[in-house]
Amino acid sequence: MDEATCARLRTIIKAGEELADSELAAFTLDAAVTESGGLGGMVHLRVPGTRRLVLVAAHGLARTVARARDWAELTEGGPSAPARAAALRVMRWAPGSGRGGTVPALPGAGGLLAVPLFPAADGSGGAALGALSVLAAQKPPPRRRAAVEELTAWAGPRLRPPDRALADQATADGTAGPVAADARWPAPCGR
Description:
This protein is of the alpha+beta class. It has helices spanning 3-15, 21-36, 63-66, 69-72, 81-88, 142-155, 164-172, 181-184; strands spanning 40-46, 52-59, 73-75, 92-95, 111-117, 130-136.
């Protein structure tokens, strides 16, 4: 990364130090979309004790797109880039649909960049917590992908998984998605 990118990331990280849970997920996602030159994005987190990844934040996507069945809940290891990134614990790029791609229901997408979120900044500590994904017109260059990885390494240890009962209820009543993000987490834990 160049010095300007590093300086922006330091500023973003300093500004977000006091945030937790849904605010932190949304803040990190906004910064990742900007740093990658993306069009929008999503954060999916694993429901404890399951392979379910639920949508907890969206940026730059119409609610009808973000809350669509294809994105409201994923299964870790499934065909989508976020599910694969979480399962394989590595960044994934999936070309957009319409050209033999694998990104469902995201209009105009060149593709989706998905980066796993880990409970420890160095990627250790077991399974990924979930994934942060950026919808992009084209695959971001290496320096922009590195910026997204830096943001996820910072945010992952600060995020808590969604409450299982609240995630089950949100999925069952169709409110999964960014409008239900605040209900997924208890009050900030003061980290």
